[in-house]
Write a structure and sequence with these properties.
The chain is mostly helical. Helix content is 60%, strand content 0%. It has one domain: ACP-like (Non-ribosomal Peptide Synthetase Peptidyl Carrier Protein, Chain A).
Length: 81
């Protein structure tokens, strides 16, 4: 079972690869406004990568409801149980 901290670390690695930006540092309050290339189009690709990495799936409603990385991490944690 992954800890919340491990999920955040894994998410950070995904974000760094997805956006080709090694300076990304995530926390629960991180939003699309904090990452230059994170927009509605890249969000869908990011969600696909996250789903494949964690072997989970989100509904479209879930994908568009995340307000920040903390919401995303909470949803991932719930799906991994």
């Amino acid at each position: 079972m992954r800890t919340s901290e491990q999920i955040l670390e894994e998410l950070q690695g995904i974000f760094i690869k997805e956006f080709s930006d090694s300076s990304i540092v995530l926390n629960d309050q991180s939003t699309a406004k904090d990452i230059a290339m994170w927009d509605s189009l890249t969000h869908m690709g990011l969600m696909d990568t996250i789903e494949r990495h964690f072997e989970i799936s989100f509904s479209l409603d879930e994908m568009i409801s995340f307000k920040n990385v903390g919401d995303l991490r909470t949803a991932i944690t719930a799906k991994l149980k």
